[in-house]
Each structure stands twice: as C-alpha cells, then as structure tokens.
Amino acid sequence: MADLFFYAFATFTVVCAAAVVGLKNTVSAALALLLCLVGVAGIFILLDAFLLAALMVFVYAGAVVALFLFIIMLLDAQGGERKPFKKSAYVSGGLSAALLMLMVVSAYKHGGQTTGELAGTVTPVGATLKNYGEQLFTTYLLPVQIVGFLLLIAMLGVIVLSKKFEGLEDIK
Amino acid sequence: MTVDINHYLVLSAVLFAIGFFGVLLRKNTLVIYMCLELMLVAATVALVAFSRYNNTMDGNVFVFFILTVAAAEVAVGLAIIVALFRRRQTIQVEELNSLKN
To answer: ipTM for the complex?
Structure first.
C-alpha cells in the first residue's frame, strides 16, 4: 500500500515539476510548482516526517508560491509570446541534466554500502514536535540563533532593495 | 518490490535534473528562480530519506533550516528582480546583457 502511494506521489511530483519547466505561462508554472510541493509533502509523510510535510505546505506552498504569484502579477510578466528556444539550448540542457542525473544515480549505485538493505527493518525515530524542540534548543541552538539573525538581515536587505534612493538615480 | 531509499534518491535526482534543465533552458528570470526552488526541494527529499533510513533526526532538522533559508532567499531574490525590473523594464535574461562587452 505504501508502495502504491510512493509511486503515485512520485509520478505526480515529477509531472508537476516538468510542467514548471514546460508551461509557457508563468502563472501556470507557479501553480504547477505549488502542486509539485504538495506532492513532495506527501513524500515527506511517507518518510514519517509529518512536521516537515506541514511546514512544506505552509511555508513553501503558502508563502513562497504566493509571493511568486504576487510578483508575477505585479510585473505583469506572464510571458505569452515567448521566443522559441534554440535547438542547441534544448540539446545541451537535456544532455547536461541527463549527465547530472546519471552522476547522482551512479554515485550511490557504486558508492559502497548503502542503507537500502535496512529498509523495513528500521523503526522511525520519533519525529515528533517534542523531539524537534529538544534538538533545536540543545544540539542546534547556535544554528537557530544564526538563522534568526539571517532572517533579520534578509528583512533589512529587502527593505533597502525596495527603497527608492532619490540622490542615487544618476549613478545609472 | 518494496520501496527503499534508492527509490527516494532516484526521485530526488530526477527532480534535481528537471530543475537544472529548467535553469539552463528558460529565459524568464522568475521561472529560473522557481526551478532553483525545485532543485532545493529535491535536495531536501534526499536529506529526509537519508534521515529516515539511518534512523536519525539530523536530516530532518537540517531540512528545517533549509526551509528557513529558502524563505529568506526567495524574499531577497524577488526584491532584486523587482529592482531590476524597475531599472531595466525587463526580466528576460537575454535582454540583460549589459556586462557582455
């Protein structure tokens, strides 16, 4: 049963990811990204990471895609009349993506022992909120502080970037 | 055939390759940015799978941080795109070539 769910979610995710690349309309691409992230959240549930699945839907599907859609509408960048790709771009892009995938796949096919044999025998460590809290406020306390600082810097950076500087217009 | 970690890693590799293909192929800066997010998500799938099959929490916590950084990154990147659009009136990468010569 879990296998069936895995294949369903994986197919759904990959199809939606392909739609992000393939769709001409930028709004459609953003909505395909939303569906793709929902599929990834399903994969996370299959991997017993329930909190991450919920966060994926809240943060990515909720905030990030909404932000993307907002910017697309703001800039009116739906891009209906896109110039056709060069054939060479298709070929080289596809070739390099295929090579990259081959590299990743062969890295663990021939990379010594994998943990694949353990499948089914491993019981999941409790990925509960309590465990997250313990980890985040003991082992990972410094990264949490740094990430908080990073968010503050990002906020300040966005404010500076979106502000209009009157005196600097002649720098162009 | 039961699903094991290799299946998840193949899925992660496929997602990453699709995102990479999109970054190389597409001309719209916003779509390129979405494909970058796709690559980030592919990496998180691999991390969660490793974490699950090695019976640790570390990968999950790492994905937690990746989510935070990605949110900050999207905000800054979109602000840069908006600033770029205000200055140049375009976000197509082939028209943003003032560094070419």
So the answer is: 0.91
